[in-house]
Amino acid sequence: MTTILIVLFLAVILFFLEIILPGGVLGVLGGILMLGGVYLTFDEYGAVAALLVLVGCLVFALAFFVFQFKILPKTAMGKNIFLSSSVPGESNINEGGDTIIGAEGVVLTRMTPSGAVRVNGRRYEARSRTGFLESGTTVKVVERDAFRLLVEKKEE
Hints:
This protein is of the alpha+beta class.
């Protein structure tokens, strides 16, 4: 009986450690220990006792997940643990094929050789084909991949 209680207690401890160290590994190990406790109960006391322990473990696991994901985020401790806001951001819009190639723009940040440019009123990440460029330099788009533009200094 002591072994069964120790195994189930360790499973509960692993479940609670899962809150502090998320990732799923400790929760899975806790679930395996709970199943081990059910097996030990079956081996020592029979099927009826093992079924009662299994139902108890399932109720505990369900209650634990409800607590972790519904109740805990609303508490003071949970607000320190869980992410409660999003980070704003934007990505480059596909300009409909390669229509941006050949367009002129202005360097926004010093390009060494990467930086930012403004082309057609939009900001893009870019790489300079001609090397170092100061901000304010006029450039021409010569190529584009999925993430950035390849630009070169416009000949005056």
